[in-house]
Design goal:
alpha/beta; 360 residues
């Protein structure tokens, strides 16, 4: 039976110990914390003399879901479309949520769609593209790494995909491609390996080998980013569960999933964390989404003399829009105690009972 984390608006104690009380001033009361075994163990550690006390470092990583910095062809020049709405105000999409990105060590997003000033759309129902200049949205809002392992990066063909990669390279943003990995080191010295895969081919053998190579290469943290599952489903498939567990068993620390366009549960498994789906975030691909719910996760990473461990998980329930009647592409936290806030938590703890979303 799948074991999902039960999330409450108060702190959940996974190990029986109270988590730290201190919270950043920018957070206020808009998030839920989950304590992992590593955090609980740290609170029980016996204090040693200062001269022999081991050094401990703590890092904060931010994860969000699908970011389409552009539009489909029909809305490319629409007055309320993403490109016209943002213009050259690069901070606009993150204005109500950006503080979380600025306070962390590294932020991750799934970049869905090409960043290219030219190209012809593929023959498919949904194709997404934005001007190359929109990469400034990532750099101006402290989004330091993305995954391109999804079913929309090739929407405008290989040439536009090559331009997308060149644009990210010039901006200094590392990215993981399908069945490929990237290794980078953050400003404060945390070396991260990010591996991407797409539902066309969720090859556990290849994934296991790549995780081992990243570990042998000296990565402090290994993150697997699968684009998987059924669109519109609030529950992971058995394949998602099997592949997610296999990734953690193989040595990954975090599995960060995408593709369903809706939230799916978070699972603590074998010392690691699986975020099955974080849904949409800054999503220019839909002016009128049927589901506005999203979430921002901030995972604490602890590095000490025994290695690297996962600490507290901060959960921020979010709406993809700051207005109700349509998507204005400006994610905004839901207020604690509201129906919307609690609904997000129910989707993340697996207790949501509503019907799956039909995505056209």
């Amino acid at each position: 039976m799948k074991k999902f984390i039960l999330l409450f608006t108060c702190l959940l104690l996974l190990s029986g110990c109270a988590p730290k009380a201190a919270e950043p001033e920018t957070v206020e009361a808009t998030e839920t914390f989950v304590e992992t075994e590593a955090t609980a163990a740290a609170t029980e550690a016996v204090t040693v003399p200062t001269e022999t006390e081991p050094q401990e470092e703590r890092f904060l990583l931010t994860f969000v879901g699908d970011c389409t910095l552009g539009s489909n062809p029909i809305n490319y020049y629409a007055p309320y479309g993403f490109i016209k709405t943002v213009g050259e105000d690069w901070q606009y999409p993150f204005r109500n949520i950006g503080g979380y990105f600025l306070e962390d060590e590294c932020s991750f997003a799934n970049l869905e769609g090409a960043l290219s000033d030219s190209g012809n759309p593929m023959q498919k129902k949904h194709t997404f593209r934005g001007p190359e200049a929109l990469v400034n949205i990532l750099t101006e809002n402290s989004v330091e790494a993305v995954t391109l392992a999804n079913n929309h990066t090739l929407d405008y063909g290989n040439a536009a995909y090559a331009t997308t990669k060149e644009t990210l390279d010039e901006a200094g943003i590392p990215y993981a491609e399908r069945d490929g990995s990237v290794v980078f080191t953050t400003e404060n010295g945390l070396t991260i390996g990010l591996y991407g895969m797409v539902y066309y081919k969720l090859d556990v053998e290849d994934m296991t080998a790549e995780i081992a190579a990243l570990r042998e290469g000296g990565c402090d943290l290994v993150i697997v980013a699968p684009h998987w599952g059924a669109e519109g489903s609030y529950h992971p498939t058995q394949e998602q569960v099997d592949v997610g567990h296999a990734a953690i068993d193989a040595g990954a620390d975090i599995v960060w999933g995408s593709h369903p366009h809706v939230l799916q549960p978070i699972e603590a498994y074998n010392g690691g964390m699986i975020y099955y789906s974080l849904g949409n975030f800054v999503f220019g691909g839909n002016l009128y989404p049927k589901d506005l719910d999203s979430a921002l996760l901030q995972q604490e990473i602890i590095r000490d003399e025994t290695g690297v461990h996962l600490g507290e998980l901060r959960i921020v329930p979010v709406s993809v829009s700051s207005i109700e009647k349509r998507n204005n592409f400006q994610p905004t936290p839901w207020e604690p105690g509201t129906e919307e806030y609690d609904r997000v938590l129910s989707k993340l703890d697996g207790s949501f009972t509503g019907p799956n979303l039909t995505i056209g």
